[in-house]
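Hey all, sorry for the wall of text incoming. These are the two entities for the joint prediction.
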Amino acid sequence: MRIELQKRPTPSALYAVLSPFIALGLTLIAGAIMFTILGKNPVDALYSFFIEPLTEVWSIHELTVKAAPLILIAVGLSVCYRSNNWNIGAEGQFIMGGILGSLVPILMPGFQSWLTLPLMLLLGMAGGAAWGAIPAFLKTRFNTNEILVSLMLVYTAQLFLDWLARGVLRDPNGNNFPGSIRFPSAAQLPEIMPSQGSAHYGIFLAIIAAVIIWFMLSFTLNGFQVRVLGANPRAGRFAGFSQTRMTYFAFLLSGGLAGLAGIAEVSGAIGQLRETISPGYGFTAIIVAFLGRLSPLGAIAAGFMLALTYLGGEAAQMTLGISDKVGRVFQGLLLFFVLGCDTLINYQVRLVLRKAAPAAGGQG
Amino acid sequence: MDIAQNILLTIMTAATPLLIAAIGELVVERSGVLNLGVEGMMVIGAVCGFAATILSGSPWIGMLAAIVAGAVASLLFGVLTLSLAANQVATGLSLTLLGLGLSGMIGESFVGSAGIKLASLDIPVLSDIPLIGRLIFGQDPIFYMSLILTGGVAWFLFRTRAGLTLRAIGDNHASAHALGINVLKIRYLAVMFGGACAGLAGAHLSLVYTPQWVENMTAGRGWIALALVVFASWRPWRVLGGAYLFGAVSIGQLHAQALGIGIPSQFLSALPYVATIVVLVIISRDRRLTLMNTPASLGQAFVPDR
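and here's what came out:
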């Protein structure tokens, strides 16, 4: 048995819309099989994984808390991947943004005005962008592989944060527990409806960023350059577009947005700088970017979907007594199926059960 | 002398998983496929090897299970990137993410279990040679396999016809196809070899290096193995040198931590990762040389026309 691909004359518009949904469907089927193997009723399990978190107001709030960083990061990554720049170190840029932004309330706890929060957010973006600039610089200057550099910088950032939170930035009155002082309220991203749940204004930042970047990609020269250099670097060079500038643009943008997500998470959801501030948002956002078909608006929907896998994992642990790692497995499966289904857009896929007759070999 | 011998021994133990995973990935990349899922396959190998050892009581069966698990995981990657021509970078990443999640789930009930160490295999007579005897001939079986793999792959790639075919596919898959070579079949075999090696490397971690299961116990070694392939300009014996260099860096920082030389432990722990970046910069600085060494079809999907 083998799979035969036949290139379509033009990409299929139908499958461009359908493929994420087919992938979701296949993930659900794979999930049902997995739950059955684990000895759970698949219908009950899928219900508590994907539906139950949506039935309570507080858990919908939780959903937006988790969706906000995923969308922010994925919007930047979409631009990056479209322009053929492989930033997979958003997790590290997220952490550096969280660190740099947190310096304001930690080092200047007395500085509490309406300027505090904007300054923190700006510094967060700067921290993420600076961390993202390293692989961009090394790629453009020394031709170094940006995938490996950006990833190595994740581990470095994690260790750096661990050192800060246990060392110089630790709360002196914290009984030797790691973690900084709790931020004063002027340094916290406020909650939208504090009486009902924990959702903070980060989700608005995310949606605004997505709309701006969508506009940039669709209607500006810069966005056109992203698309041309990504789809056909040679054509881009002939048009006079600079690959070097594009690499910097992609990494600074995605790093900056990841950094913004980091400081929004620290100041909105956590309220202090801890030794770990991310349950892998930077990596999950890669899945979000692809599920959203590398479109900033698609990233919004995909961000909520992946946020659901975080909540579903927690729910599965509580109600079904299975590991919350199930959420991670679902995320990995989803990306697999999304990438597989994207083949349908450019190719006709045929399953050939028997070997083709040798005579057919010479044609085409 | 004994101290120096012990340090060398630990360096070799730390280098072995890097070496095996990198040798596997080298074959994959020589065939023109970039599999970024090494970390994921390695961690799956580690957990399956550990679980099978506990369940069967034999670390040898654990080792076999790890090899099979790594190869099966790589097959997932193969179906997507080879048969469905999906983006190799993204698919490799998803294999890593899936591997980390799946291994966490499988391993959850084994956290804290006492593992069984794969006993070292002293080669009679040779292991009694003074100074080097214990270092080279008194090691664990996976260490010997790492050397055999390195030599075997070097011989295969540069001294056999099949190796030449594999490199030809990696340099120009369209021409190889035109010559009647079954590009996808050979790439499938290469990808599965890489997966099996990554699985074995994982088994070394959970059966020899630290005989226990800890979540994410690969800690980026799969990524360092990927960097080693670039560092070695896709040449097996240079991978060996690179792996031992990295083994030395990671052991050196552990000793520095133990001595308490006043540098925060986190900075020392970051050393292998920073060293990877520095080495990558040095090696890829010369654009022409990199271009000459890199398999020309690396990372490009191949769809046979008929």
